[in-house]
Backbone:
């Protein structure tokens, strides 16, 4: 098996004003609707978008994901930088165990930049860098789907934003 990617950048331009894209990233009630790859819901979504604010999300695999349906995928993290309407920086990662939020299988530094890209358009740049591996076996499995998962998640965000601007 090839070594999974440890760095990924996704850039998208949304047909939505920057304040709406920002809210989708900072309001946990909105974030809960689009976070995670297709087929995943978020029964637990704690997202305190302020410096030092905590992140704790439990993703639940739906029946459309076949053999992994019903699995829970917890993640936790902490915001490092929040520059309103411009930038979010947080450290987080998938947890090996739902019982201990400090038990990250791997850690990622995630930076999200937002900029206006014309009237009612927003360019978003999402950069993910794996900074530490704590559980090689678990991390390898999780990171093998990182590119697909983050792209699906970004697609879901775009679809939600389209619905919100209508």
Residues:
């Amino acid at each position: 098996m090839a070594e999974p990617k440890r760095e990924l950048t996704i850039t998208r331009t949304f047909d939505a004003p920057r304040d709406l894209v920002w809210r989708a990233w900072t309001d946990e009630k909105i974030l809960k609707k689009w976070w995670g790859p297709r087929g995943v819901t978020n029964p637990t979504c704690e997202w305190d978008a302020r410096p030092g604010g905590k992140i704790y999300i439990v993703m639940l695999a739906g029946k459309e994901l076949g053999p992994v349906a019903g699995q829970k995928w917890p993640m936790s993290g902490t915001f490092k930088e929040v520059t309103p309407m411009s930038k979010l920086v947080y450290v987080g990662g998938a947890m090996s165990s739902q019982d201990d939020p400090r038990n990250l299988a791997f850690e990622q530094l995630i930076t999200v930049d937002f900029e206006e890209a014309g009237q009612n358009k927003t360019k978003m740049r999402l950069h993910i860098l794996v900074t530490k591996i704590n559980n090689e076996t678990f991390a390898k499995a999780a990171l093998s789907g990182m590119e697909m998962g983050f792209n699906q998640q970004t697609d879901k965000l775009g679809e939600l934003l389209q619905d919100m601007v209508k």
Q: What stands out?
A: The domain at 7-165 is CATH 3.30.530.20 (Alpha-D-Glucose-1,6-Bisphosphate; Chain A, domain 4).
